[in-house]
Amino acid sequence: MIRPHGSDGAIRVQPHSDNPVRFQVGSNLTVAGRTLAVSDFRTLPGGYALLRLEGLESVDAVRPLAGQWLVAPEEPVPDLPPGEYYHYQLVGLSVVTDQGEGLGTLQEVLVTGGNDVYVVQSASGEEILLPAISQVIKEVDLPAGRMLVHLIDGLR
Hints:
The chain is mostly beta strands. 5% of the residues lie in helices and 38% in strands.
């Protein structure tokens, strides 16, 4: 997600990608249906980044994009070891317990110091936070769009 930073068209973002190639100068990102080239990039404290996109040279040009997602093309992304996934692959998965109970849809991946936390939202709007640990996450089936989980004590 993005927001303006300063008055010269800089954009403050919280990256949800661990692929450093995503924000290299010259790479393309899409925001609000427009594909724009990165003209400048640097990291900021707290896991944020500051970038500039060609064609967005003022705060007035950036302000309407606040809260929007910057989307990088899927290719090229490095292959991950078996059992590891990019966040974009997980968001949207249907989450089901090993008892057959549908918990909802994985809405967001929170990056924490120890392990990621998956935010799952039910159809009624209730949220459950699942730690991304092997005791809880039993199977990820990307082609089926499903994640199988085991609810350990204290997760509800």
